[in-house]
Design goal:
Low-confidence stretches: 1-8
Oligomer: single chain
Helix content: 10-25%
Shape: flat
Mean pLDDT: 82
Largest sheet: 4 strands, antiparallel
Amino acid sequence: MSEPPTSSSDPLLKDDPVGTGSYEVASGDCISSIAYEHGFFWKTLWEHPNNEALRTARGDGHILLPGDRVTVPPLVPRTEDCQTARRHRFKREGVPAKLRICVTVLRPSPETVSTDVQTQNNGTEVTIREPEAPTRWSREPLANKHWVLAVGGELTTGTTDDHGLVEAWISPGARSGRLTVDPGGGAERVMVFDLGALDPEDSSTGVAQRLRNLGFDAADPTNQASLATALEGFQHVKGIEKNGRADSRTRDALKETHGA
């Protein structure tokens, strides 16, 4: 294993907040929740000219870094001409929001190699085949499985598609959820998640979150030695040069494996 960098931060990562607006992003915020709380359609805020720097830096308004600043302009009243003595229906744009979750499991590659081990058993030499630790892993979707989603006190049910995809409509202001896949079945999995809490993939916290979600211990993203060790474990599994750094190839593989 190579020696991890000794600096307290990785220069390849961007941990400084961006944006100049009056609203400061907190953990759990995303552009949809911020817009919902202030009475806007999310694209109105995201495409506002004063949010250009934020938009350029983050790319995705649903993955913001705590401390980022968002411009929230004053609401402008809108009027509609309607016929009297009639019932009219108005729909608020962006409500509800679409939640998509791709449910997969990591499995060892079938190409895992075995090795021969020579030993002695009652004076007789025998050969025992022991599988090596897998060096390659692949994602397998949990396809065509029943699921139950609980968000904001509302229950939604459905079945994953061939790619393990779960789709449901939720409130843009929702902060957490619980997904149960194949409840009561042999592949039952329960996932509790925070909505809007995933940081950008080019930040230390964002890299650490994705590593933890994939089973690699990155307890303290501010400790570069801890983060480097987790990155080396991920790089080993993905067949990437083990340098303990969040270089572009590693971040791309991490985002692809994690799914976001």
